[in-house]
Amino acid sequence: MTPDLMEAGAKVRAEHDARLDAYGGGSGGGATYGRVARAGVPEFAQGVALYVDDITVSFDGFRALNALSLTINVGELRCIIGPNGAGKTTMMDVITGKTRPDKGKVHFGSNIDLLRLRENDIAQIGIGRKFQKPTVYEELSVFENLELALKADRRARASLFHRLTGEQLDRIGEILALIHLKESAQRTAGLLSHGQKQWLEIGMLLMQDPKLLLLDEPVAGMTDEETERTAELFLSLEGQHSLVVVEHDMKFVDELTQGRKKVTVLHEGSVLAEGLLSEVQANEKVVEVYLGR
Ligand SMILES: Nc1ncnc2c1ncn2[C@@H]1O[C@H](COP(=O)(O)OP(=O)(O)OP(=O)(O)O)[C@@H](O)[C@H]1O
Predict the structure, then answer these.
(1) What is the CATH number of the domain that holds 108?
(2) Which UniProt keywords apply (predicted)?
């Protein structure tokens, strides 16, 4: 390579890095997303990913969660359903440290007390949350969004001062294939369809290799084809990650549970029923709370 070309290459890279730094993902930025957790390392040997016990959350005396208890196993894909106002979002808020409960316990693995940690620390120890609306960096390319997510991971930061390692490039390639965006890697994220943006955001979460993924109505607004692809994606993640999927779309829940996985029905802040989708759909109490609205 001639010195001219080397200089031009360095300039392109510097501009690229400056673009990412502007979004807080560079070596000096990312104060919120990238703070080093002092939370310890979660222990999963007992097979439990998440243990929620007797959680109550009150808003001005109204109980959004009422003695809620729930256990998610390592590698499990659990769908949570329930009518509007059942407490599904509040439950996610408690797990991720956004809302503090009045009482109860929330443990990640067998040893981490999530109620003692801040929101950023919880994200850093391996709990990823996907909100209903996609939140990707619209002006950046699909690839840059994934690169930024990698830079937010404290484990990857030290090696990212100059360029991505081969291993990191491979990881981005793997995720691009998984989220069906390999052909769109250089596309500006703002130009993606709604479904593709949702996948990109899931890909960004996956860059940090979370043990537990919380997904709030991930297929809302997706086409049937996108919904099917999302089900395939989640099924391919099962086993390596624990997934908690809050969803109203029963066809999607059916695709995810494949007639053999347990679903949890929330109502008025508590677990109303738990079992196979066919069982809970035949449960009189469940039918009543759905039809009663
Ligand atoms: N910050 C708050 N202040 C007061 N009430 C709240 C607050 N957050 C939630 N609630 C109430 O708590 C209850 C549970 O709300 P939550 O959003 O957790 O339900 P949800 O199951 O996620 O509902 P949806 O399916 O409609 O998203 C609702 O009655 C809601 O109005």
Answers:
(1) 3.40.50.300
(2) ATP-binding, Nucleotide-binding, Transport
